[in-house]
Amino acid sequence: MNSNTEFSVFSETGQLKQVMLHRPSREIDRLTIDNMDELLFDDLLWLEQAQREHDGFAKLLRDNGTEVLYFSRTLAETMAVPDAKEELINDVFRFECLDRRISDEFRPVLMEMPESELAGHLIEGWTKKEANGVCRRAPSLVASVSNGSDFLIHPIPNLYFQRDPAITVADGIIFGQMTFEARRIEPLYWKYIIRFHPRFAGMRVLFGDAPDEVWPQKAEGGDILVLSDKAVAIGVSQRTAPTTVQRIGRNLAAKTSIKRVFAFEIPRGRYCMHLDTVFTMVDKDAFCVYPPLLESLKVWQLDYSDGGTLETLEQKKDWQAAIASTLEVERLRLIVMRGRDDAETAREQWHDGCNTLAVAPGKVVVYNRNVNSAKLLRDNGVEVLELEGPELGRGRGGPRCMSMPLNRAPV
């Protein structure tokens, strides 16, 4: 275990020292009734209100001793490094399948743009109409047809859910391999940050950068919980595949002190798209859980050798005892997030009542609309910091979804 580096996450609950956030910006205004399903949204957001709520989130974290970094600013700083800007632009063109004619027209425009402005455009997207206004109309079928996308560079409105495209584990990073096309470019930007940004120099890549660790491998950060310096829990879900869980386990065992994976087999529904929508850690020995999950949950324990060989695979009927033993606690405290009736239970889970973010052991951030969830946590000795976030929550994600911890103090 090496907790002395600038980037170090060996738990879910250690004092949160540093975090990456993305403040929602104009990409949110790209959502329409016609494209919101494709972009993985159930509703349209009011940008200005979402920004006010997000600013409140950042302030709450700072008030509790956390350094807040912003993704768009970090991406802009990355592109100021020699060679990074042009290389990233070319990779974006390849990702968007732009033909050579329009790429050759578009590249000089982007290269001359200030890095902060370019970072904004890479996130908020660029329509065909906007592109026609800044460069000559090169003969291009991509730019001409009307039965395809309106965008040459697509917006990424899910980016304020920073948990998913990359996650710090131990003293390295796992790049997500996103299930849906709307989010697949997000890890690319993280790869450039890790590769070029001076502050991230030397951060080890634990998964997602090898040729056989990209799509159709599937993994998203919302499915990964860092239990300790010995173990992680990973959801086998709608968005993380079992083969990827096994590969991540191999890499962690070979490169870090983590030799054990608890694979949580959860339903593949929208309501539990990631493990952290139904199960999160709130203290050194405590978890909150959405009660219907307990009816169908299967947990598998995978143990690896130091070299990354899978030595044992066993379904754990008493998974709580297995995790308690791994955490070296007498038993787990399981806080079952049950409402006064089934409707309240389901409603608060839909509004991310289980998606807690621990800023210290036994101290978590939750949306203030989840009144019953906050009460249950407090009744079980957990300190609750309430966040106003009705607009942010329309995107179907809570405080944990919106944050990517970079450094936590040891527990």
Which range best describes the helical content: under 10%, 10-25%, 25-40%, 40-55%, 55-70% or over 70%?
Answer: 25-40%
Radius of gyration, CA atoms, in whole angstroms: 21 Å
- Mean pLDDT across the residues is 93
Strand content: 15-25%
Number of domains: 2
Low-confidence stretches: none
> Number of helical runs?
13
Structural class by helix and strand composition: alpha/beta
Distance between the termini: 12 Å
CATH architecture of the largest domain: 5-stranded Propeller
- Superfamily at the CATH H level of the largest domain? L-arginine/glycine Amidinotransferase, Chain A
Task: Write up what this structure looks like.
The chain has 411 residues and is an alpha/beta fold. The protein has 2 domains: 16-73 and 158-408, L-arginine/glycine Amidinotransferase, Chain A (5-stranded Propeller), CATH 3.75.10; 74-157, Arginine deiminase (Pentein), CATH 1.10.3930. It has helices at residues 47-63, 71-79, 84-95, 100-112, 115-124, 128-132, 141-144, 186-196, 242-255, 293-296, 319-327, 342-350, 371-379; strands at residues 16-21, 67-70, 126-127, 151-153, 166-169, 172-175, 204-207, 224-226, 231-236, 260-265, 279-283, 286-289, 298-304, 310-315, 333-336, 357-360, 363-367, 383-387, 404-408. Helix 2 (71-79) packs across helix 5. The radius of gyration is 21 Å and the shape is globular. The two termini are 12 Å apart. The mean pLDDT is 93.
